[in-house]
Amino acid sequence: MKITKTDFQGLFIIEPTVYNDNRGYFFESFRQDHFSEVGLNVEFKQENQSKSTRSVLRGLHYQLKYGQGKLVSCPLGEVFDVALDIRKGSPTFGQSYTTNLNDKNHLAVYISPGFAHGFCVLSEAAIFQYKCTEKYYPDDEYGISWSDKTANIQWPVNEPILTDKDMAFPQLADQDESLLPEFGV
Predict the structure, then answer these.
(1) Residues 132 and 45: beta-carbon distance below 8 Å
(2) Active-site amino acid positions
(3) pLDDT in tens, 35-45
(4) Furthest-apart CA pair in the chain: how many Å?
(5) SS3 of 156, please?
């Protein structure tokens, strides 16, 4: 397993060692000791899975009081994954990190608390898996508009399928500053 730091503090790409043979493949999707070696001492409290169809866009979500670190992957299909840095005081505030996750490259991304996260489905259907360092608190869920002008995310879908809730999230510049996490806290 190769864990690579990105230019965003708290954001890592995980590339597993995949063993292929005539039966299929095998890889370790998580190893605590490998995470600890790069300074990621995380404890996962909840694991989620969603199945979505082409052009579904979920996000950009975050929790404030109970920030969630997330280890995300796509074991079936393909998604365009986005982590938006919304941490006040961060050198990468307002910038996004994007990558394609799929069942061919087997990549995963670890996203520290303080990022808003979302993805859209590129394949006919996709299963999205995420381990979280904190459980979900519905009263602590916030979001940033998927079409945020500051981040200027180049989503690869023309007409995304969104929930009413996701469509109603504010632009980052319009979000109440008290509802944004602090960098380094």
Answers:
(1) yes
(2) 61, 130
(3) 999 999 999 99
(4) 55
(5) coil
